[in-house]
């Protein structure tokens, strides 16, 4: 592995950092999250048009920049520094890789250039809050995580062609490839504004039970010139502790959908594509957490240099210096892990046969390391800022909330580590002790590696 960045990668970081420092201070962030979209749409268009941010990891054939997960992770590190609210993770790290891996040529040509240019945003909707499981980050995604016929999931059913044709003749929207979706999903990143929804749904009943991915074109009614909303689709923005990571609940009542890909769908291919997307999303989220932790630590160091107690700056006390030194070491370890995870996700392994596939467990392990580092930095920032640090209005809580909610989104940390150990083959008999059974969902026991 060559740890040196190229000049192009350095330029991406410099340009993005300069722009965000001018446009995205704490006050601007707090104002943006209180708008209906939950982010600054003008800034997002500037990031997409000037820097090609959502298309960094997309091929040039589909309007992208032609880079890879490393460049996307470097961009996410910079957006994490300012805790930027944006649809970057949902569009570039979740939806776009799945469209590229599974979509037909028609679907790729129609959607990917628009996503790369920022004309459309997209997201992945997984029912039951099982996003980490669907991406194979906290467990294998070979089960009925999309509902499996039970309440709380999303079900897909075919529509007879005559019904679809009748709907079209009567002025209704066509049935989008002959599928309808019914169910609900919560904690969908940017789900209330994304124009393209990649929805995981269960189909086939008991006999041919399988999980497939479907496309729903959910135009934003607030956008000028947008298409009417999809019949049967209700999107509600959820109240979240971390307002910089807007989430939504989707309710689908016989919503027209189109199968992602061609033919009748391949459940095994869907599981492989989701598992391959997991390391990319984990590396991007880990880099974002590293950027947030870096800024949180820098601002805490600046504060302890200025805050005077007992006639001297509190940063001069050895106990405070030790705490900050521990945070710095944890941050540098997390940064190295995030960079390596992005490099591995891009197929940068030294062995030729490993090209194009992420090293087992690296993404989950890097994400666990970064989330722990951000959580530790945020907690110390609140404490070392003293009385003002405990107020919700202080900027330290932007990082505290991000740390708490990111672990809820793709964690928890102990399950990320357990999955990494399982993928690396440390425990052949399961995720617990050698010869033991795998850890069931919700079990308090954890495997620390």
TrEMBL record:
The keyword Manganese does not apply. Residues 283-422 form the Acyl-CoA dehydrogenase/oxidase C-terminal domain. SUPFAM superfamilies: Acyl-CoA dehydrogenase C-terminal domain-like, Acyl-CoA dehydrogenase NM domain-like. Residues 6-119 form the Acyl-CoA dehydrogenase/oxidase N-terminal domain. Keywords: FAD, Flavoprotein, Oxidoreductase. One of its GO terms (molecular function) is acyl-CoA dehydrogenase activity. Pfam families: Acyl-CoA_dh_1, Acyl-CoA_dh_N. Residues 427-449 are annotated as: Disordered. It comes from the Bacteria. InterPro entries: Acyl-CoA_Oxase/DH_mid-dom_sf (IPR046373), AcylCo_DH-like_C (IPR036250), AcylCo_DH/oxidase_C (IPR009075), AcylCoA_DH/ox_N (IPR013786), AcylCoA_DH/ox_N_sf (IPR037069), AcylCoA_DH/oxidase_NM_dom_sf (IPR009100). PANTHER family: ACYL-COA DEHYDROGENASE, ACYL-COA DEHYDROGENASE FADE28. Residues 436-449 have a biased composition (Low complexity). Belongs to the acyl-CoA dehydrogenase family. This is Putative acyl-CoA dehydrogenase. Its cofactor is FAD.
